Amino acid sequence: MTPSSPAPRPDALHGAGAAAAGAAAGTTGDPHLDRYAARTTGMTASEIRALFAVASRPEVVSLAGGMPNLAALPLDSLAVEVGDLVATEGQGALQYGSAQGVPVLREQIGEVMAFEAGSLAATGGFAPDDVVVTVGSQSALDMLTRLFVDPGDVVLAESPSYVGALGSFAAYQAEVRHVAMDDDGLVPAALEEALERLAREGRRAKFLYTVPNFHNPVGVSLAPGRRAQVVELCRRYGVLIVEDNPYGLLGFDGQTYESLRSLDPENVVYLGSFSKIFASGLRVGWALAPHGIRDKLVLAAESATLCPPAFTQLVVSRYLATHDWRSLVKSFREMYRERCEAMLGALETHLPEGCSWTRPRGGFFVWATVPEGVDTRAMLPRAISARVAYASGTGFHADGSGARHMRLSFCYPPPERIVEGVRRLAGVLDGELEVLRTFGLSGSGATGARPSSGTPGPQAPSVDTA
Amino acid sequence: MTPSSPAPRPDALHGAGAAAAGAAAGTTGDPHLDRYAARTTGMTASEIRALFAVASRPEVVSLAGGMPNLAALPLDSLAVEVGDLVATEGQGALQYGSAQGVPVLREQIGEVMAFEAGSLAATGGFAPDDVVVTVGSQSALDMLTRLFVDPGDVVLAESPSYVGALGSFAAYQAEVRHVAMDDDGLVPAALEEALERLAREGRRAKFLYTVPNFHNPVGVSLAPGRRAQVVELCRRYGVLIVEDNPYGLLGFDGQTYESLRSLDPENVVYLGSFSKIFASGLRVGWALAPHGIRDKLVLAAESATLCPPAFTQLVVSRYLATHDWRSLVKSFREMYRERCEAMLGALETHLPEGCSWTRPRGGFFVWATVPEGVDTRAMLPRAISARVAYASGTGFHADGSGARHMRLSFCYPPPERIVEGVRRLAGVLDGELEVLRTFGLSGSGATGARPSSGTPGPQAPSVDTA
Fold first, then answer.
1. Using only C-alpha atoms, what is the Rg of chain B?
2. Which of B16, B56, B151, B261 is an S-S bond match for B270, by CB 3.0 to 4.6 Å?
C-alpha cells in the first residue's frame, strides 16, 4: 500500500487539529504517564505535524503528501452503484462480515493482480482463499509486524523506506537496518552484506520490507535482473519478504514488473491496495500470504478490528464489477505522468546547482538530494513560510538521517501548481545556499547557528508524510 | 463496543471458510513457524470455528452470534443519502482523512452520547476534540491494550468478559484477572479484593475493562449504587477504567445508566459504537479519552490503519443528519425486547430443572447456567447436530473455565426461531442429563467418557462468538 497523505493536511482540512497539536506538544502533564507500555517510549508525534497545520493553508503548495488525485473518478455513476448496493444488498453490506474479507472481492483481486502481471498464472499463483483483505495495506503491515517482531528483532528495509512502515516497525520495537538503493532499486550486494553481517552476529532478520515498484519515497523500481537475486538471497538466508506494491499499476507507459511473490510464493507476503487505483478513503488493501501466515493474519485481524468493514469492500467490488476500471487506471497513469513531467521540468529549470533528483517512470514521488550543508528538516519551516511544503528525508530513515534529501510528491497538485511550488522551493534553497556561502558550514549543516529543528529519529507515521 | 457475531457464520455465509478451517487445523507444516513473535504463542483459532462452518447452515438456529438485526434500517432512504454523499462529497469522502476521525462525526457523537446521558452536560463533559473515531470499538480496545500492556501486565475484567476483549488482551500477553459479577454487575467487594491482592503482590493492574450496561455475555447492568464505588476504588488504587458501552442505548424500557466516565472523566476511557444502533458492517466506533491517552490513540491509529475510512464515517454522519435515528433506536429496543421475552419464555417452558439464567433488561444476551456435570463446550457438537448453536461460557474466561455456562443471543433470529432453538437446546440438555443420570459424574464433568473437546484456555476471538 504505502498510503500517502494530504497535500492539505486532512485534519486541518476538516477543521480539527488540536489533538494533533497536543500530540506534538508531547505528553507533559499526562497523569497516565507511568502506565503506558514500554513500546510507547518515544511515541511522540513529529513536530512536522504542527508545521503541516500551517502547510494546509490553500496558499501553500504542498509537495509533501501522497494523496492520490481522485478528480478522474466517475462519481455520478459510482453514486448510482453505491446507492443500489445499499438499497439491494444493505442487509449484508451493513452487517459484520468475514475477518478474511468478503469472498467476492477476494475473487476480483485476482483480476486486478492478473491485469498487472499479464495473466492470472503470472501472479505467482492466485487463489481467493490466499487473500486477506485489510483496512488499507497499513493494517496488513502493522499486523505482519505484530506477528513477526519481538522487541529488538531486526527488520531489513530500503534506505530510505516508507514512513508508515517505519512507524509500525517502531511501534513493535523492531531494529531497522536499512539497505542501500540506487537507480535500479535495492542493491543486491548491499542486501547480501546486511544478511551476512546478521549471520555473523548470530542473528536473522524477521523479514525484508521492500517497495519494488515506483518506490515510496525514491520513485525508482527494482531492476528486472535484480529480482531473482533478491528473492534468492532472502531464501538462502531464511528471511521472509514483505513486498508492498501500491503503485505497481501506475507506470507511466503502462510498464509493469514481475512480482517478487511470483518468484517465490512460499517466502513472500504480497501487499496490494485500492488506495492509488481507486479510492484511498475506503481503506481497502489486501495481503496474499503463504497459508500459515494467512491463517495468523486472519486471527490478528479479529483482534485488531473483528473484521474489516464489509461495506467498503462491497463498494470496491461494485466499482470493479460495473466500471471500466482498467481504463481509469490508464487515465491515472496519464495524469501522474503529466504531473511528474511538470515537476521534472521545473526542477531542471529552477533548482540550484548541486541538487539532484530521481526520474521516476511511475508512482507519486521524486526523491531530491540537496547540496552538502543544507538540512531539509531544518529548512522546512522556512519553506512553509515561502508557501511550499515537502517531506524531509529524515522521516524515511529509522535513525532520523537523510537530512540532505526530500521527497517531492507530484500526485496531488495540478501541473501549474507543481511548477510554482518547485519555483518557491528553489528560492528557499537559493537562500539556504546564500547563507552557507556567507557563513560557511557549521558542524554538519548550515543550520548550526539556528534553533534546532528537534531531535531526529524515528517518529510516528502520519498521514502528512505517508 | 463489544462487537458481535453472525448467527450464520459470515465466512460460510459468503461461501468461503477454507482459511478458517486451515486456521482451526493449526499451523502444522508452516515453514515460517520459527519466525513468529512470542506474542503469537497459543494464537490458534478455536476449534469452535470449524463447528460454526456447520452451524451456519440455514437449518441450524444460531443463538451463538451477536449480529444486530438490521431489518428495521430504512435502506431506501439511506441509499439516496449515500448516493448523494458519493455524488456531491465524493472527492473528500473517498480520500484519506484524519487519523482522529472526521470532525463532523466527532461533533455528532456528542448528540448520541447526550441522547443516552440525558444531556450533553451529563455525558461527563464532551468536546469533539476528545473523541477518536476507530474501526469499530474492537480497534479502540486493541489499541488501548497496545498502549498500556507489556507482556505479563495485569488487566482486570469481569467474570465472564467479552471474548473480543480477551482476544486483544491475549494478543498483547496480558495476565487477565477476572472479577466476580452478580445480578447487579461487577461486585465492588470483589474488585477491592483483586486490587488489594495486587497491591500486596507489589503489582498494579493497567486497567479495569468493564461493560457496565447490558453486559456481554451476562446481560446484566452495573447497579447505579455501585458505580461511584467502582470508580472510587479504581481511582484509589491508581487503575484506569476502560468502559465499553455498545449496548447502553438498548435498554428495553429506554432506561439508561450514568456512565462511569461521567463520574471521573480523567480516569476513564469510554468506548462507544454505532454497530448496535446503526450498522455493524461500517465498523465505526469511538473512544473518548483523557488528552494524554487520546494523543497516543491517534498515533497508534496511524500505525494501525493510517486513518479510519473517511467514507464509512461520513455514511454514519449522513445517517445521523438525515434520519430520525432516535426513533430507530426506540424501534430496536422494541424488537430486542420482544426477542428477549420470547427467549425467556422458552427457557422457562423448556429448559430442564437445575438450569438458571439471567433476565436482561436490555442488550443482546442471556447467560445460562446448566446443572453440574454438563460441559457446554463438550456439548456444542451435539447441539449443532440437533440444529441449535450457542456460545460456550469457556470463551468468556481467559483461563477457559466457564463450561457450566453458555451465552444465548436473542438479537438475530426472529422470535419463533428463538423459541424453536431453545426447544432444541432443551432436548440436547435433556440428553446430557440422561447420560449423567445413567453413568454418573466422571471427573469434573459428564463428558469424561467422550472425546475431549480440545484444550481449554484463551483463544483468538472470532466473529462467531464475539
1. 22
2. B261
